[in-house]
Specification:
Chain lengths: 546, 546
């Protein structure tokens, strides 16, 4: 016996339709590659997205075919989000930080038909265009006046001309909500990247969950500046959630330095932002060097990698900006957990609240999680036991594109779970804390040492700009921790001082055996530290034998 | 080409599973029919719901069969919500305020197999039990010690005995999310009630929408006391949304008077409540007569019928309790709109904010709405044009149970919309305001007069307890407004004073032609004024001929 309610598929176009009809006057502001600060309303953005969908028809792009983007955060990128998925094509957001060889491999693997790119990436596209096997059309995301003269891409199309030439009459098609909507590749620090193919259904459910009060709490009262790139797991769903809520959006374009960001925060009255710790580091350094304030920003979401407690403390105590620590993965669309305090935690003293906020947080509704031991059995939620983190839910990957890597899931008791590769604890309030990537764990004398804890302590030292803790082989203990450190410009710090800094902050046997100072720590395409490179580099590092 | 994400049906059991696993220690507090204040955790409630599902197996209730409840707001009713729907049966919440003949008609029409009832309703159930054609088992929702001696119901079962006898081992079954989950009948002021059959999918999507920041904003930081009954469109979804968020729940049981409610608000630290205006009237009268305060309550949702602006002002200005005006219908699960201010409205002066809050609000994400003229064409969103309100969305009715009343939808341009029977305006910010029920509109000289506006003005007079405005036939103008008024106890008020009160508050020709004072205004089963009764009663009322 079925219910008797309206059957409406969950489609991405319904988000834009809602924004257009119910928040039509709300603004989308973009700092563009051309240098200007551009404004349009959701009503105008929706009309342009319809024109673009008609332009894709004219280009002969079939339903299900991939349209790739290589672009910063801006209104044209957002128009592509809706035009491509809304018209039943698949949006493939390429990560411009990939090595050109890897980018070509990804575009070929995805069988991209169209590639739309911001002008900043012209040299890159010129370099790889001749080798792209499947791309039939290249579109420069600019107007005629800014089209590059003598671009080495035959038949290069102009985005604004395509939009202008098309009609804005288009009823978004209605189709199966399980249809593919967008495609992101994992960053693939080892081996080739793997494609995660989101459906309209998974995206819509994820969007509703992202907007919930205990997740990112997205309402019509917010002005949102996503610092997290739209090529990085759909900017954590914010371009979708903003339409759901009718929030004002502010896009920073390519200007991601602290000065440009802070100016935009202030001039547009941004209330909510989101990004990875490394970007916030640059912003905070600029703000402090110039004795600036945040006058409108109330909250920022920090994810991508663990937020150092020292950064959280600075945001909250010095700037009055609440930090929302969140955790996710490409395979999770990406949101899995958010560190929103519950009722009884709000009443705790500040230091205890910050200790809880340093955890990655509670599962958002829709995601279930568990930690398991080596034998696959579920471990208790006591905040002590640590094991591999497994998740399930309607926006969690079931398999990678083209079946790459085989079945990624773990099956038990008729249920399928996705093993995240993270090692975590979960406490009695359901707060999960990542203690390590399973491949980064340091195994010393049969016990585990969490590299993230050691990095957070180093980051709390005023002279440290960045720190990575890695395992190096040890004849007696199998592995011991080595700390790789980038000092702040002009700061003085010795190995002995930093090792002494651990005293009283951690169990003695967890203390790093040695410290090496480097100019820079290699970062991957999504800003994460590439510890495997460091492990290779320091494999033979001689440890003190004390 | 389909996405490659996990396929998980949207099932009501997932809400309880989430609450159990991620908020297991959170409390559900119930004032019970037996007189005690009862506490249990979500973990315990989930275990009891599993036992109850197994008990339904033992009673031989097949998937899809209806289990009816006749109960106040309490933990046992909530256990039934999850046990019945979670095990693929259909929960039918009977409204105890229906006339016994109508209740019997509804139970027969729904083909209820089991009837679970609170002890307060024993005499009612004894009276109708012999005539119920399909009910095979009657369950008194109490323990053995409180079972009524000599109940005139053969084979009467005891709820707590059923729960105790069953195992709590039960994996909630996984099935099609379009399966029927619960059933509510419209109040049916004319003709027989009609059944609205919700699906698991419609309920889950509605629950996520209810919890959004721009809807009821339900988080783990709230303590929620739903005054709105669980037999009144599933208490507006709060028993589901509370599990989604892990909020503390407080159930008032049968004690709905101002004193009992206020004590419970204070003793349990309630932060959020929800109910119809008539209940709040009793609560506010008690609070003011005894010079009491709300020390923890921050927000209350008011719906079911329009909230008089005077009540909203009292809550907000005198008690610091924000009022969230919401609108819905049984056919909408029920939520359609909520009056949450957006960013630019927050900056307006208080009087302008209150004028906006007096509207029924913006469509929650998932619901689309429009107003149409007599010719079916969409009217502009200018806050002036008024027309019939139509809605669509995945939690809007598609047809009534057994096809009663034929196709309820209006079809145009390949879209199907549900005509609400409300007459409304929509302003440029998307705020909808109901000006009347289409059947209550007063047509004077070819123009419409909105009865709700006239009632709100009367309600703002300090001597008025309740007011209804109805059309009476008029030889020259076709219809003219007549005001039917209940005075506050001991208050003195004349017809002339009240008519004078309209001066300057409304266009002169909208002023009621006459006022009649009555002892009481008849209310329907869900607390709405039965204006059709008044229209019959006053059909021949002589109007002054001035």
């Amino acid at each position: 016996m079925n219910g008797l309610m309206m059957q409406q598929p969950l489609l991405i176009s319904s988000l834009l339709r809602h924004a257009e009809r119910h928040h039509g006057g709300q603004q989308v502001v973009s700092r563009r590659v051309e240098g200007d600060l551009h404004r349009l309303s959701y009503r105008e953005l929706a009309a342009r997205a319809r024109r673009l969908a008609n332009a894709l028809d004219a280009l002969g792009v079939a339903p299900g075919e991939r349209v790739a983007t290589l672009a910063w955060n801006g209104h044209r990128h957002m128009e592509l989000y809706y035009a491509v998925s809304g018209s039943q094509r698949v949006l493939h957001t390429l990560n411009p930080r990939l090595h050109p060889d890897q980018m070509r491999w990804v575009a070929d693997h995805a069988e991209d038909r169209v590639l739309c790119f911001d002008l900043s990436f012209l040299p890159l596209v010129e370099a790889i265009a001749p080798q792209l096997a499947t791309v039939r059309a290249f579109v420069a995301m600019t107007d005629r006046a800014h089209m590059p003269a003598g671009a080495k891409i035959p038949g290069l199309l102009c985005y604004e001309e395509l939009v202008d030439a098309a009609s804005d009459a288009c009823d978004w098609p209605v189709f199966d909500e399980n249809a593919a909507a967008s495609l992101c590749y994992t960053s693939g620090t080892t081996g080739n990247p793997k494609g995660v193919l989101y459906s309209h259904r998974s995206t819509l459910l994820h969007t509703m969950a992202v907007a919930l009060p205990d997740a990112l709490n997205v309402s019509a009262r917010e002005t949102i500046l996503p610092v997290v790139p739209m090529f990085h797991v759909n900017a954590w769903g914010l371009p979708y959630a903003a339409c759901l809520a009718g929030a004002k959006l502010v896009f920073p374009g390519p200007a991601m330095d602290g000065k440009s960001l802070h100016e935009l925060f202030e001039s547009e009255g941004v209330t909510l932002s989101a990004g990875v710790p490394t970007v916030w580091q640059g912003l905070l350094a600029h703000v402090e060097a110039n004795d600036l304030r945040f006058t409108t920003m109330k909250r920022t979401v920090i994810g991508g990698s663990a937020c150092p407690p020292a950064m959280m403390h600075t945001f909250q105590q010095r700037h009055g900006v609440q930090v929302l620590h969140a955790w996710g993965m490409t395979e999770l669309s990406p949101l899995g957990t958010a560190g929103v305090l519950n009722g009884h935690q709000l009443a705790l003293p500040e230091s205890e609240r910050e200790a809880i906020q340093a955890k990655q947080g509670r599962a958002v509704f829709g995601v279930d999680m568990k930690i398991v031991g080596d034998d696959g059995r579920e471990l208790p939620w006591d905040g002590q036991a640590s094991g591999e983190l497994l998740v399930k839910g309607p926006w969690v990957v079931a398999q990678y594109l083209k079946g790459e890597g085989g079945d990624p899931l773990v099956h038990s008791n008729g249920e399928a779970w996705f093993p995240t590769g993270d090692v975590a604890t979960i406490d009695a309030d359901g707060f999960m804390q990542i203690t390590d990537r399973s491949k980064d764990v340091i195994k010393s004398g049969g016990e585990w040492i969490g590299s993230i804890d050691l990095e957070n302590i180093a980051m709390a030292h005023p002279a440290v700009a960045m720190a990575a803790c890695i395992a190096v082989p040890h004849p007696k203990w199998d592995e011991r921790p080595l700390l790789v450190v980038v000092k702040k410009p002009g700061a003085a710090l010795t190995r002995e001082e930093l090792i002494g800094f651990y005293e009283g902050r951690i169990a003695k046997w967890w203390t790093p055996d040695d410290v090496v100072f480097v100019e820079a720590i290699p970062l991957g395409a999504t800003g994460k530290m590439l510890k495997n490179r460091l492990r290779e580099q320091f494999r033979g590092h001689p440890l003190p034998t004390a």
